[in-house]
Amino acid sequence: MRIYASTTISRLKALADPTRLRIVNLLAVRPLCVCSIEQVLGVSQTAASRHLARLQAAGILDSERRAQWVYYSLDEGFVTDHAGLLDYLKGEAADDVQLREDGARLEQHVEADTLCAADPEASTPDTVSVLSLETTRTKRNTQKEYV
Amino acid sequence: MRIYASTTISRLKALADPTRLRIVNLLAVRPLCVCSIEQVLGVSQTAASRHLARLQAAGILDSERRAQWVYYSLDEGFVTDHAGLLDYLKGEAADDVQLREDGARLEQHVEADTLCAADPEASTPDTVSVLSLETTRTKRNTQKEYV
DNA sequence: CGCGTATATGCGCATATCCGCATAATATGG
DNA sequence: CCATATTATGCGGATATGCGCATATACGCG
């Protein structure tokens, strides 16, 4: 197995995949759990999990477990240390049909409140217990008909 | 063979390779012929040619034949349309040991005038004939002892 | 604990990538 | 035309990547 001399390479490699770029495009809007990403992008659970792991290994994403769900978000260090790269990608995304459609689809799900679980941004784990989230949506598959 | 939905992906894929990033790092300084790139980076002729072709296919490099030599340079359109990406890469290069060493080695070759052929920037093909280049260096292998 | 949901991972397969060797293609000069 | 130098490319092998299937793991709940 090859070890890359620079992590610049692993970052670029991580971003050089259509599905992973779509994921970063979504997470630039807001953190999401794995099942939401599956929903919005229409990719398999396996693919979503694997691509997310790859992006996290490259230092691009961070993850936080909350109950059964794992929320992925852009890594804070990545956002600050590689703002130039992120800005470039956002510019490219604005010109890309599929990435724009993904963003629109995400927005629809947010407005219709059809994402699999509560908004992770609404509160930090410290202030509100996971147990108090009554709006939790269950069973990933109940959403699949909407797609 | 897969066709990528967006050329953003092919650009990132092209850059997501250590040797190709080293090549872009050199060509950001000045255009170079294939044999000079071999010299400075210490890579095989095959590898240099293949990586250059990949970068050119992604729209990152441009090439111009002059006599037996093919000079590669950063594509003008790439530099203007993707300045953000290029700037990011330059910033990363400043922090990368190998890329800095490559730059220093290139500078040494330039100052010692040990590159394989005359400076392509000195003149355009229109103003000065190829035949007038007396400083042409020949036989790629004569330089190899210096490495 | 046992069950259901969400996520991660081992495995095999198809394909892509990277490399070196050999050779072809291009260009110059005698 | 022939020899030489530079660059490109066909080929095969080693490795990496992406995917789906099946299964393991983590978590909350009753």
Helix count from the secondary structure assignment of chain A? 7
Biggest interface pair, residues each? Answer: A-B, 24 and 23 residues
CATH class bucket of chain A: Mainly Alpha
Total domain count of chain A: 1
How many β-strand runs of chain A?
3
| SSE arrangement of chain A, N to C | HHEHHEEHHH
* Main β sheet profile of chain A: 3 strands, antiparallel
Mean pLDDT of chain A: 83
What's the CATH architecture of chain A? Orthogonal Bundle
Give unreliable regions of chain A as ranges.
1-6, 122-135, 141-147
CATH topology value of chain A: Arc Repressor Mutant, subunit A
**Oligomer designation:** homodimer
Strand order across the largest sheet of chain A: 1-3-2
Helix content of chain A: 40-55%
Class inferred from helices and paired strands of chain A: mainly alpha
Query: Quick one: overall form of chain A?
Result: globular
